Amino acid sequence: MVPVSAVGARGGSAPPRSNDPRPRLAQTLFGVEFQSPVLLASGTCGYGREYDGLIPLDRIGGLVTKAVSVEPRTGNPPHRIAETPAGMINAIGLHNVGLDRFISEKLPWLRDNLERARVFVNVVGRTVEDYAEVVSRLDVEEGFLGYEINVSCPNVKGGTMFGTDEAALAELVGRLRTCTERPIVVKLTPNVPDIGVFARLCEEEGADGLSAINTFPGMLIDVDRRRPVIGNVSGGVSGPAILPMGVYLTWRASRASSLPIMGIGGIRSARDALQYILAGASLVQVGTALFVDPSSAEAVHEGLEAHLERHAISSLTEMVGALELPAPPPPDAGTSG
Amino acid sequence: MVPVSAVGARGGSAPPRSNDPRPRLAQTLFGVEFQSPVLLASGTCGYGREYDGLIPLDRIGGLVTKAVSVEPRTGNPPHRIAETPAGMINAIGLHNVGLDRFISEKLPWLRDNLERARVFVNVVGRTVEDYAEVVSRLDVEEGFLGYEINVSCPNVKGGTMFGTDEAALAELVGRLRTCTERPIVVKLTPNVPDIGVFARLCEEEGADGLSAINTFPGMLIDVDRRRPVIGNVSGGVSGPAILPMGVYLTWRASRASSLPIMGIGGIRSARDALQYILAGASLVQVGTALFVDPSSAEAVHEGLEAHLERHAISSLTEMVGALELPAPPPPDAGTSG
Amino acid sequence: MTAASPLRHRASVLSNRRVAQDTWWLELDSPGIAAASRPGQFVMIGYGIENTAAPFLPRPFSVGWRAADGRVGILLRAFGPGTTRMARLRPGEDVLLLGPLGRPFELGRDRPIVCVAGGVGLAPFLFLADEARTAGRDVRLLYGERTGGRVFDPELLASLAGGPAEVWTEDGAVGQRGLVLEGIDWSADRVLLGCGPSLMLRALAESAAERGVALQVSVEEHMGCGVGTCQGCVVPRADGGWAKACTDGPVFEASELAWSP
Amino acid sequence: MTAASPLRHRASVLSNRRVAQDTWWLELDSPGIAAASRPGQFVMIGYGIENTAAPFLPRPFSVGWRAADGRVGILLRAFGPGTTRMARLRPGEDVLLLGPLGRPFELGRDRPIVCVAGGVGLAPFLFLADEARTAGRDVRLLYGERTGGRVFDPELLASLAGGPAEVWTEDGAVGQRGLVLEGIDWSADRVLLGCGPSLMLRALAESAAERGVALQVSVEEHMGCGVGTCQGCVVPRADGGWAKACTDGPVFEASELAWSP
Ligand SMILES: Cc1cc2nc3c(=O)[nH]c(=O)nc-3n(C[C@H](O)[C@H](O)[C@H](O)COP(=O)(O)OP(=O)(O)OC[C@H]3O[C@@H](n4cnc5c(N)ncnc54)[C@H](O)[C@@H]3O)c2cc1C
Ligand SMILES: Cc1cc2nc3c(=O)[nH]c(=O)nc-3n(C[C@H](O)[C@H](O)[C@H](O)COP(=O)(O)OP(=O)(O)OC[C@H]3O[C@@H](n4cnc5c(N)ncnc54)[C@H](O)[C@@H]3O)c2cc1C
Ligand SMILES: Cc1cc2nc3c(=O)[nH]c(=O)nc-3n(C[C@H](O)[C@H](O)[C@H](O)COP(=O)(O)O)c2cc1C
Ligand SMILES: Cc1cc2nc3c(=O)[nH]c(=O)nc-3n(C[C@H](O)[C@H](O)[C@H](O)COP(=O)(O)O)c2cc1C
Ligand code: FES
Ligand code: FES
Q: Model confidence over C56-112: pLDDT tens digits?
């Protein structure tokens, strides 16, 4: 599916040539064309096939697979999900079929059935070598464009998460850069004091793009039983509840690095997506909203098209990062109270 | 209002003596009795007086004032607040009358009108010396129990927030400990990789308690005008949206330190409050919910009383930190995916 | 600022009818608020603490009208997600009310009153005109809308306000074509009151200032608490500081405020 | 797993009546889902993407009944915040439906069918009993509730299920006193089906295993997507792995699952 010439071309959003007849939502990113900025988020669309017939995958931008690890993982005990105010908490535990079965059972469907949708494989590991093995072994396969590196997982070596530890993250990204020429997109963790530091670091280590953001750590307690609702005690909070945080962190990441960004977190409408795009995202991912309504990704796509048409904007790229700030910029941005 | 003998007594929640006739919700904390665990959160109840007649302040646990800084602050340009999914974003900018007027105009009302409600003064500054000045000069006054130190503000010296910088926070807490014998409660910032580190550090530097949590940095964009909705560009997200994060961070803080904790974030019912209490909070604060319904703090108080009665629990202290974890504890707690 | 504490209670929706494009007239059952309200004051209307969908925060609305039987009338324009949902309120449902809140218009004595309303800025003047007219005052009610479709049902308006309004529309479809400001007779012996979008209020304030005419305006800003605790609703004062729209206002002397963009 | 793709569409509420304490019978207008459903399958019912108040995520409900005119019947028990709100659905409102989903009961041929229902586990058997009886099958419907007040209106039940149920209540207020399991005749030539709370299903599965009787059960677990993408709804397999309640189930052979506490 990936044209050989495109593999490995680095990101950067090219403005459309003036007499380009291509659709308003199309962008060239990571060396290939995305017909739409709307992708499905990792963990919320399985391996694509599960939504076949419900979501016209080839009409949208693409999808990110469920996390793939070297070994199969059985995941966490139930309950794995629960509802929170305007959101949900999940602790799936990176339940996945493992690399071998991903290659033999999941990738072929993506390769054979998707023409225009771009596929990223979400990658996890417990060590740098785990990640490197997934990337190296996948790299010879067809059916996907690049990697989204999930760093919101514990680093067996240091005890911290890769995504909150600058040294561990730098080592990881640097190592993966040696394993592939395909686009590497690092999915940033939100619970850090300054996401810009991590965005910059990824750029320096050779990443091609950023995804912002993964879920927030959260917990729910069944007060009658005095027990956590979630089998794994805590999990990740997603959904509309985190939208303002996601927009903010995308904006911060986009000011700290020049990499293209996939904006993620609570998106359920074109207006939500536009907030991310104005904040600096070139692409967006729809996750939890798919559970509420599987047609929401398509609705976001159509709503974006309608918005551009209504405002006579010829290309979405004009809106990427086009947020206008008040002058002079306020000194205390980011603080509350 | 503060009995001299109590001033400076350190925290720790004493279980009620067996034939103690005191109400189920009463607890001894910071050397004094709290008749109820429910307080009003800083910035959402002004200086108390504004809610006089609407909220029976002397029936609940108490309140935390709007932040007080040495100098008066005019705060941020409008819009200062906006609604987000199941929450709100605020960037008031620590608008406050300053220390002199706080002492002459605000404190007297609290001193003269509250008998049983406990008052904490929320303190902010741009430098360690700012904080120290507020605490030192207030310390000789009457009408409040102790201090809640708001560290979600930029540290002029280092450029980071006090609340996300271990060294700056340690210096601040250590310095304030030399200024007062009254309870010092440090209000933790949520956007750190491991709140336990900060909780421990506050305990080591002599703090008497912790408040968890302050707001999450967030942003909203008006997509038609391509401008931030909030005059200050970004602000702090509060309300039900952040409840699961607040419960999780309270749990983490309570496992990392033995200080009493005030649980904060999205509380609007007794069941929400109980989640914080089971996770380890001795007290809770109600903030944004007051805007939705000023009677919600009282409703939380009454709901807690009803819950204890229904379950024949003689003292709330039995529930503090009484969360039962599944055995064996899952290895990946805190991660999602 | 206000003398008595505001009331907080659940109020039943008595009726909710569409009175113009995007515009509803909502009647709530609230004897306490009906009795205590003065023209220019407002209420916070919310869905209560169980609700987290928009409107999560309560929204401020002028008391548009009140009746001796305890009805409170609200003029509601579906604007964003919150008001769109409120436009669908049906009889039998209830809302959480907090009010009356804020500083009312000062009407003084005897002098003729001129009300200048833009859009749903009409709301406080329905109540005001009705009661002032009943009290024998001379009231002119100038009312502008962008389009004719948005003009409040004239019959209902006349019955609520104790007389008709002089209507101006930008498209000229109803009433006179033009801006409502064109209808003002700038005479200094009137009590001049304005309520409407901020651009209109600014134009009004500038004209009044040029002519040395006193003007009271009711302003809008995003609100959190409605009672002065959150400092969320500030508007710029002429002297450089901030005033709270909820307790220092919503009615201000135009000269108290800064009007530069 | 399922042959055709599920349908997603907005469906009108046709009626919603209280049929027992905390229990409602909701009829939705969904010809497509009515036509495609098989007993044991379920639908996800939600309020759509604009809604963020509970239920924010759609909730799974068994297809309780269907009619040739396109009606789909749902037996709904107000349990937590989501179902409490759904119990207040009124005719004219609509919901977002996704379905039919999941693996249905396997009824085989000819053999008598014994349905064992606990609480709203009754739902799939209304539909099943009605159609199996129409097809000439012998169907026993055993139905247990904790208290008599929660027993589904017997007349409506009989009309939906094509015949009455044998009712057991723990308080003995309606039907026989005791647990519904006591009513089972453990004969191996029956098609034995169970649906209800997990404690009841476990007891049922253990009894069936002891007696070597085949049993199909419909299980419950928190669901996100309902279509197999989120891995949220897993239940433990006998072989140590996990099965997805939404696509591998909700109906399983009891022997496929692990029943230890
Ligand atoms: C004192 C006062 C009296 C008012 N009287 C009336 C009236 O009688 N009739 C009427 O139709 N409208 C009135 N308004 C305006 C009304 O409150 C807003 O139209 C409404 O809040 C918009 O909510 P929304 O969710 O539909 O819009 P959104 O744009 O979705 O609102 C998003 C956020 O902005 C806030 N917001 C947006 N616009 C306003 C605004 N103008 N004022 C306060 N908050 C705002 C909302 O609270 C919310 O937090 C009044 C406002 C004030 C301050
Ligand atoms: C296949 C299937 C069929 C079902 N059929 C019926 C039926 O016909 N009639 C009926 O009344 N109920 C049925 N249920 C149970 C129903 O889905 C739950 O009662 C409902 O989801 C509870 O939601 P709540 O908000 O009221 O409860 P809450 O306790 O507030 O729910 C909190 C969270 O837990 C989840 N949750 C809680 N219990 C369940 C549960 N049992 N299943 C799935 N999610 C749950 C909710 O999705 C939500 O995320 C069925 C469940 C499944 C899985
Ligand atoms: C309008 C507003 C103003 C606030 N001002 C302060 C403040 O001055 N100092 C402080 O420590 N926290 C401040 N906060 C944070 C709250 O005290 C509380 O930590 C936060 O809102 C989370 O609780 P909630 O979800 O119940 O509102 C403010 C919050 C709001 C909404
Ligand atoms: C059920 C579920 C499973 C997820 N699994 C993964 C995963 O495997 N890898 C990953 O990087 N993110 C995972 N995520 C996070 C999402 O991709 C996304 O970052 C997050 O949900 C925020 O977006 P949303 O609010 O639109 O859902 C998962 C989220 C959910 C809800
Ligand atoms: S709305 Fe809170 S101070 Fe005015
Ligand atoms: S509910 Fe998502 S996999 Fe079953």
A: 999 999 999 999 999 999 999 998 999 999 999 999 999 999 999 999 999 999 999
pLDDT at B14 over 90: no
Is A202 among the catalytic positions? no
Q: Confidence band (pLDDT; 50, 70, 90) for A334?
A: very low
The encoded tokens of residue B119 equal 């008052």
Domains of chain C in start order, with CATH, are 7-101 (2.40.30.10), 113-256 (3.40.50.80)
What is the spatial distance between Cα D53 and Cα B240, in angstroms, rounded to a whole number? 11
For residue D13, count other CB atoms closer than 10 A to its CB: 18
| Chain A partners within 8 Å of B44 (Cβ) | none
How many Cβ atoms are within 10 Å of D74's Cβ, its own excluded? 25
- Can you say how many angstroms the Cα of residue D205 is from the centroid of all Cα atoms in its chain? 17
Other CB atoms within 10 A of residue A164 CB: 21
Collapsing DSSP states into helix, strand and coil, what is residue B334? Answer: coil
For residue D164, the one-letter residue type is P
C interface residues, D as partner, C-beta within 8 Å: 50-54, 81
Q: Return the beta strands (E) in chain B as ranges.
A: 27-29, 32-34, 38-40, 62-64, 81-84, 87-90, 118-123, 146-150, 184-187, 209-212, 216-219, 221-222, 227-228, 234-238, 261-264, 283-286
Q: Check: CB of residue A86 under 8 Å from CB of residue D56.
A: yes
Question: Using the beta-carbon criterion (under 8 Å), do A81 and D46 form an inter-chain contact?
Answer: no
Dump pLDDT digits (tens) for D4-25.
Answer: 789 999 999 999 999 999 999 9
Half-sphere exposure of A259 (CA within 13 A, CB side): 32
Q: What is the pLDDT of residues A140-149, one digit of tens each?
A: 999 999 999 9
CA A73 to chain CA centroid, nearest Å: 21
pLDDT at A12 over 80: no
Indicate whether A6 pLDDT > 50.
no
HSE of B37, CA atoms in CB hemisphere, 13 A: 34
Task: Record the pTM.
Answer: 0.95
For ligand 2, say whether the CB of D244 is within 6 Å of any of its atoms: no
Q: Is the separation of the CB atoms in D139 and D79 below 8 Å?
A: no
Quote the tokens at residue A212. Answer: 């912002």
CA C137 – CA B112 distance, rounded (Å) = 45
What is the C-alpha to C-alpha distance for residues B218 and A216, in angstroms, rounded to an integer? 13
Q: Which of B269, B296, B281 is nearest to B60 (CA)?
A: B296
Q: How far is the CA of A29 from the centre of ligand 5 (A)?
A: 45
Cα(B88)–Cα(A240) distance, integer angstroms: 12
Segment A289-302 shows an average pLDDT of: 98
Is C42 close to ligand 1, i.e. is its CB under 6 Å away? yes
The number of residues making up chain C comes to 261
- The answer to whether D222 and A82 have CB atoms below 8 angstroms apart is yes
Question: Using an 8 Å Cβ cutoff, are C52 and B240 in contact?
Answer: yes
Smallest Cα distance from A1 to chain B, Å: 27
Which chain A residue has its CA at the smallest distance from B216's CA? A245
Does D49 lie at the interface with B, CB-CB under 8 angstroms? no
Query: DSSP of B271-320, one letter per residue?
Result: HHHHHHHHHT-SEEEE-THHHH-TTHHHHHHHHHHHHHHHTT-S-GGGGT
Quick one: A4-318 is in which CATH superfamily? Aldolase class I (3.20.20.70)
Q: Nearest to residue A120, comparing CAs of A185, A217, A208?
A: A185
